[in-house]
Specification:
Elements: H1 24-41, E1 55-60, H2 66-77, E2 81-86, H3 98-106, E3 112-117, H4 122-127, E4 133-139, H5 145-158, E5 166-170, H6 177-188, E6 192-196, E7 212-214, H7 217-223, E8 226-229, H8 234-237, H9 247-254, H10 258-263, E9 268-270, H11 283-286, H12 293-311
Parallel strand pairs: 1-2, 1-3, 3-4, 5-6, 5-8, 6-7, 8-9
Helix pairs in contact: 1-5, 1-12, 2-12, 5-6, 5-12
Length: 317
């Protein structure tokens, strides 16, 4: 698949609610822009004044470490005024509705909102409440588009053209918002995707998204160019005790081990975090030179800078 011409492509998106709304050209354009911001992060002073006249609210109703810090760092690297909202210390604890909360915040003259919420569809709802740009930082088990974009950007560092590449996503497919956004994005740019895990953690109709389904880890690792492990979303499935016998058995059957790296020497390893060592993979696997997990974290800042830049109107860098 050819990449869009940076000089000619007209990026028309107003929000980032999910990759379902983005074309292949939109996705590739964001990834191309992220290369510039990745270079910015390597400068002695990794700052640019692109968003110095913008006010951004990080509206987080759900716990987050990497995503929240990554967005905040991206915003500050670009000179924005940043306001952090946490539902645990807000009027939401007093019964204020989401609609009233966002309208009160909007009245303070904000430009962009980065939203994370446990309920699917909240970013779409926010677009009907305020005029600000809305960026989805995760909505329930629905989508997590910036995570998928940074994952794809990291994959491009290994394989510049993702068309035809074989990507395996292993683990809790049913409850992960990361996997949905990755599937949507990867399929659009021409990659081949296989999801792998126990039958109880794979949705019955996931193949309708255009992916292959496997319940055999060895066959999947022998097939793929990149293996992305996902954690089991215990907070969304009430402990998961009725979905698999035990965490230990899950690791025995679907955990990536050093033996796999020796047996299948070509695939690279990714993980969107947080890693549960000894569950999705052995600790030595996460720390091996086949893993690009820390690269994903660094790339997350660059990709989110690119998203902020484009949705703010794409002023000159």
């Amino acid at each position: 698949m050819s990449k869009p011409n940076l000089e000619e492509y007209n990026f028309k998106q107003k929000h980032l609610l999910g990759l379902a709304d983005y074309s292949a050209e939109d996705i590739l354009y964001v990834l191309e822009q992220a290369k510039t911001f990745r270079e910015v992060l390597d400068r002695p002073v990794p700052k640019i004044p692109t968003l110095r006249d913008k006010t951004i609210v990080n509206l987080f109703y759900e716990n987050s470490t990497r995503t929240r810090l990554s967005f905040e760092l991206a915003q500050k690297r670009m000179g924005a005024d940043v306001v952090n909202f946490s539902s645990g210390t807000s009027s939401a604890k007093k019964g204020e509705s989401l609609k009233d909360t966002i309208r009160n915040i909007s009245s303070m003259k904000i430009d962009m909102v980065v939203s994370r919420h446990e309920s699917p569809g909240v970013p779409h709802f926010l677009t009907r409440c305020v005029d600000a740009v809305i960026i989805n930082a995760g909505d329930g088990a629905h989508e997590h588009p910036t995570q998928a974009l940074l994952d794809m950007f990291t994959m491009q560092q290994i394989y510049p053209d993702l068309a035809g590449k074989k990507i395996a996503i292993i683990g809790d497919i049913s409850h992960s918002r990361v996997v949905r956004s990755n599937i949507l994005g990867l399929i659009k740019v021409g990659a081949e995707v296989t999801v792998c895990g126990p039958k109880s953690l794979i949705p019955k109709f996931v193949s309708a998204l255009g992916v292959n389904v496997s319940h055999n880890l060895d066959e999947t690792l022998a097939w793929c160019d990149i293996a992305m492990a996902l954690r089991i979303q215990m907070e969304r499935i009430g402990g998961g005790t009725d979905l698999f016998p035990s965490v230990r058995e899950y690791h025995d059957t679907f955990g990536i081990k050093m033996d796999h790296l020796e047996k299948y020497p070509d695939f690279m390893i990714m993980h969107p975090g947080p890693i549960n060592r000894g569950v999705e993979m052995e600790s030595d696997v996460a720390d091996s030179d086949r893993a690009v997990i820390l690269n994903q974290v660094t790339n997350g800042v660059a990709v989110r800078m690119a998203v902020l830049y484009l949705l703010s109107g794409g002023a000159r860098i």
